[in-house]
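Complex record, two chains
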Amino acid sequence: MFKRFFGGRSGLTNLALLAILLFAVLPLSLDIFRLNLVGKYLTYAFVALGLVVLWGKGGVLSLGQGVFFGLGGYCMAMFLKLEASDPISTKIQSTPGIPDFMDWNQLKALPAFWVPFKSLPFSLLAVVVVPSVVAFIVGLAMFKRRVGGVYFAIITQALALILSLGIDGNQGVTGGRNGITDLRTLWGWDIRAQSSQYILYFVTCFLLLATIVGLQWLLSGRMGKTLGAIRDREDRVRFSGYDVDLFKVSAFVLAAGIAGVGGALFVLQVGFISPSLVGIVPSIEMVIFAAVGGRHSLLGAVYGTLIVNTGKSLFSETFPQLWLFAMGGLFIAVVVLFPNGLAGIWDLARRQGWSKFVRAKAGTAAADAVGLASTLSANPAKEGKS
Amino acid sequence: MSNTSFLLAIEDLTVSFDGFKAVEGLNLYLEQGELRVIIGPNGAGKTTVLDMICGKTRPTAGSIMFRNRELVGLREHEIVRAGIGRKFQTPSIYENLTVRENLELSYPRGRTVLGSLAFRVTAEVNERVGKVASEIGLSEQLEIEGAFLSHGQKQWLEIGMLLMQEPDLLMLDEPVAGMSPPEREKTAALIRRISAGRAIIVIEHDMEFVSRIADKVTVLHLGKILAEGSMAEIQRHPKVIDVYLGH
């Protein structure tokens, strides 16, 4: 049992290292502004964890995980917005008691689908259930028809576009491009206070670690082996009597539910949500987090998310225009040189011993550089002639 | 057709791909415990017949009754659970898993999503894995990853994975392709051993191998049955000699 939850002694050590980093090192060394940023990154890590299950294990690449992050986030934000829109604080509106953006859009009453979000238990449930149900419907429709690979990736990407455009175009009921802003309290508890930000950070860390332990258990059992087998030999699994389609649907639903939790924690810590966080670009960024960290490794995905986002913050503060190029370059570099990401480098290095590893990698990198240089120098010559 | 004593009764089976009839009006009956070999030149429709039995290809017309239950229209995993195991032409095993894990994953429990969560490797599973491993001659290789097996061992492992499911009908597509003569001999003995108590359909080209295992041989040509009978009858059959065996 112990082995399945924590992955044996080395797994436990790695998990403990991450816990120390998240619970002690970062809170003690960063101010609340930076710590809040880390907390925000960790909410993306939930999405990356889901991608490890879906993509790393199951071999199904989704480029639309931002959809589920966004749905979770919007479910949370709707509750918070309704709480912030009580009749007293909205008394200057022409219709008091409804969210401000509805009032600007001349709505006279709360739309029916907003009403249940007055309840916190309902909203918390919806954070997980809404993304899961959407993933179930989309997954069932795709996988039963044997849509997979690139086609599935494209369809999930289209889904991300549809959702972000849909939110954008229905300002009256969704808050439109501005998103849902000015969120204040959770059942009367001010989420903007510094003490709340600390608490929310720790809640995020705790839920993240709990998710890792849960997924570790799941992946170490027959479910994990079956998903890996489906990735490598789908037909053999199918003709061994497994309903492969349902396994894929389950992985997709699981990844979506986890992403939804991340989205809700994002909203609680950052205090708003907008369609720019659920569209195509963030969805692809989340895939990059998982790829950089190592799509086969749960812990790798967390580190990948932290490192890429820290890089993004530092880099984009100094060279805002160059960030997207740097990110694209990083993605290509990881895929070409280290297909298993940071976790792959870590494993390889531990197995071979660091010094040998550095020498070997330096050797191949040098060879690659020479090869690249000769290709680059050869090409202009050819073009010059033609 | 009403109830029969046949294990498998295929009638008027036809499939066409874009107008080309790969299999046409095929009738094939298999007794309980029979070992049938299907031979025929390339493109005769042999693999297509297996594909239709196991649900990979949907027939255009006809019926496939297995223990008096219609298979046409069932989904692949349902057909497997009905008791039919299929080995593919190229060895199809999980290369990243050990031989033991390959066999465990083929154990017919925990094959639903929820079942997979509750599945535990019990003593019973281990016993079966051990028994099958010794049957296919891989007892020493249990902890080795599939990728490191030789070609012949991979073929045997896949047969072992099917045996884990204890199917009533086993379908083997070219089980000795690419094997050395001693490996072929071992495979022939293995197939004879495992045919006790179950029916087997084998697709094969190697006539010497066929003569060693077959109860009955069916010759397919251009999607139709050319001849059916014992090995000796087939080898004397003038049409078979003409299109397939040669003079």
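Note: Chain B has one domain: 33-56+75-245.
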